[in-house]
Fold this sequence. Notes:
With 191 residues, the chain is an alpha+beta fold. The chain has helices at 3-6, 27-34, 37-40, 51-66, 114-129, 144-152, 181-190, and strands spanning 12-13, 17-21, 71-77, 83-93, 98-105, 134-140, 156-166, 171-180. The protein has a single domain (3-190), classed as Gcn5-related N-acetyltransferase (GNAT) (Aminopeptidase), CATH 3.40.630. The protein is 35% helix and 32% strand. Strands 1-2-3-4-5-6-8-7 form an eight-stranded mixed sheet, with helices on both faces. α2 packs across α4 (51-66). The longest helix is centred in the N-terminal third of the chain and has 16 residues, at 51-66.
Amino acid sequence: MSNWQAGKIPRLETGRYILRGIKEEDAKELFPFMSDRKTMRFITPHPVDTEEKLQCDIKASLHNYADSKEIPWVITHKETNEIIGMFRLHKLHLWHKKAELGAIIREEYQRSGVMTEIMGEVLRFGFEELQLNRIVGDIFEGNHGSARLLNKFGFTKEGQLRQTDFDGENFHDTIVYSLLRQEYEKLCNQK
């Protein structure tokens, strides 16, 4: 077991934001945007509908952290200390050295550079501290903002999984992107 697993969820920091370990009591502040269909449109067709359900989801994430399967954070703004999003490395597999990105940003903070600012720190943490070899970004087709972000950070579009999700009316395709350790190191050396 590595040091980051033994204690609390590691804290990451950028110029304007802090990623700190999620807590059950965060459900109250997370619920207004995690239950919003517009905010969640590229994540799930069925957002949580009660604060209690969100609290159960947080408990599950913390259990997954204890089992080394996920690292769940909330994103807080340094100046206001308010929670502006949630971020996690999930589908974490330390033997295979891989994980998948998952992010949800409050509507009023979307398209404001939050993800551009924190992505570099999350990739550094994943590749350098966790020693991952592969980080994946799976996004719904039509999520152009996330596609631009992944392209900006050197991710490769691997393919399209057809009709993976159903929203009650329509099926949606998933686009798979990935970044390998050697690609990350090459990009870092170019800076």
